[in-house]
Amino acid sequence: MKIGVLALQGAFIEHEAMLRRLGVEVVEVRLPQDLDDVNGVIIPGGESTTIGKLAVRYNLMEPLRELARSGKPLWGTCAGMIFMAKAVEGEGRDQPLLGLMDVRVQRNAFGRQVDSFEANLNIKGVDGDKPFHAIFIRAPLIESVGAGVDVLARVEKDNQDVIVAARQGNLLATSFHPELSYDDRFHRYFLKMAESET
Ligand code: GLN
Fold it and tell me: Can you give the CATH number for the domain in which 27 is found?
């Protein structure tokens, strides 16, 4: 099993460490050829406009879309989720997007950096009986999903439950940062997606 981690900007090292702990071979993706023979790709959190602009500059947009079209799993965490979305509310209008996942996201939906928070979530399909401790850092939320998108987790915001994890076939998105919790269940969930594809 070989997983690529987009290593243009953001929290890619933490994803790599988690994958290595799980015995997975990791490739840092900076150029299109780094995607050769990977079984799946993780797009980390960071700053989504920067990730998008660098992906354009390094000619990674089409190869990443092609990889997703071929059925290999792609998982975006936080900024990575924004980058994978079809639509971004408001301030995200001018940023490059892969436009793969049929979701509309809102950036910085929970406030500024100081409003970052942690929450225990029940996540559909992630096994174990204890909730998943999720870390949100200037996180986005998913405002709406298209048909074929399965909602995996929600969190309460202003007395409403908003979507913070979703899956559409081989595409996975989380508003939070599972690579920062000492809990590998989300990574194992993604690896199962990659295994069933290979
Ligand atoms: N606020 C960032 C953005 O909009 C995402 C933050 C993160 O990835 N932790 O791109």
Answer: 3.40.50.880
User: Which whole-number Å values give the CA distances from 107 to 48, 88, 110, in the listed order?
Assistant: 9, 7, 8
Ligand 1 binding pocket mutation candidate from 6, 14, 48, 115 (most atoms within 8 A of CB): 48
- pLDDT digit of tens for each residue in the chain (198 aa)? 999 999 999 999 999 999 999 999 999 999 999 999 999 999 999 999 999 999 999 999 999 999 999 999 999 999 999 999 999 997 656 899 999 999 999 999 998 888 889 999 999 998 777 999 999 999 999 999 999 999 999 999 999 999 999 999 999 999 999 999 889 999 999 999 999 875
- Tell which atom from ligand 1 comes closest to the C-alpha of 48: 10
Is the whole-model pTM more than 0.90? yes
Annotation marks residue 177 as catalytic? yes
Tell whether ligand 1 has an atom less than 6 A from the beta carbon of residue 81: no
**Count of structural domains within the chain:** 1
DSSP 3-state helix, strand, coil percentages of the chain (rounded to 5)? 30, 30, 35
- Domain residue limits at 140: 2-195
What's the CA gap between 18 and 130, in Å, rounded? 19
Ligand 1 contact, 46 CB (< 6 A): yes
Q: Of 144, 118, 132, whose CA–CA distance to 189 is shortest? A: 132
The yes-or-no answer on residue 143 being catalytic is: no
